[in-house]
Amino acid sequence: MGGERLRVAVVYGGRSGEHEVSIESARSVLEAIDREKYEVLPVGVTREGAWHVVEPDGLLNGATGLHQRLLPSADPARQGLVPMDGSAPSGRGVDVVFPLVHGTYGEDGCLQGLFDLADVAYVGSGVLGSAVGMDKITMKAVFQAHGLPVVPYLAVARSAWEHDRWGTLQRTEQLGFPCFVKPSSLGSSVGISKVHDSTELGPALDEAARFGERLIVEQGIEAREVECGVLGNEAPEASVVGEILVQREFYDYEAKYHDPGTGFAIPADLSPEIVHKVQALAIQAFEAVGAAGMARVDFFMSKQDGSLYLNEINTIPGFTAMSVYPRLWQASGVSYAELIERLIDLAVQRHADRARNQTSYQD
Questions:
Q1: Mean per-residue pLDDT for 279-295?
Q2: Is residue 139 classed as helix, strand or coil in its secondary structure?
Q3: Nearest of 221, 211, 163 to residue 187 by alpha carbon
Q4: How far is Cα 349 from Cα 346, in angstroms, rounded to an integer?
């Protein structure tokens, strides 16, 4: 690239309910990234799905929403960054995309497919790892196929619930109580209910059905919630293990974003044997779904007997400087700025490897 700084497009915002969280992640990356090494091009995606190039200083100086700081592209026919050919409004191509669009339409393989079509390097998992990691039913099936531990669960189609409510209730009640009812493909604990008895099950399924066509019901266990970060491509590494400390009944949306009583113990107060097992399972989960770059892997640890169960893998975890994933790595000796650099390097390496594979296939 002729000694020029790598041009990194930080893509954020998006159409999911995690829009605001994504903006904060982007701000944190813009504050920490090495501007002498990287030329940063913030690209905001509105709630309606429009793409716009944004002034870096505008985003950093406290804009509360994308609509306040959007700049149109110089070419009206090519609104904002159009990565179908990797080009940017200035005419110079983007070298790497750093996607920070959490949840639907960002973490589920949609953006990743677009970047693959554009033949642009990007941070994080590809289409497969992203899609599997986003859908809880598919994710758990993949974990089970690899012999990894998950709590008993039942997949429920929204259509089945709507057309056979009594039969669905009978099937799901077999998991016992308490249980958790969730949309299969949504983040930030949106649409999740803890069900204590049969009277709460129907309303919980109705609530989850508002957010998706596939629902999942999981057996509830009294557990500690622990998390581990994974970083790498073919040879992933695991971070120290952290624990979520929640004062509410479970780690719901309010606990995640609004409850000041929610805290984190990093590192967690666990035996070396448990830490090693969590780290090994985190890497196995990362490899099982075909993840790349980064992921945060969440676990339940039974308070009764210490058994570990995989809860889920997040392929674009919260990425502010105070988010759990960067804090896990900071406690592991990798600073926030270094973490950004390593992820960009991993994206470039993965893109080069894929290009070599494609060349070999064509030959």
A1: 98
A2: helix
A3: 211
A4: 5
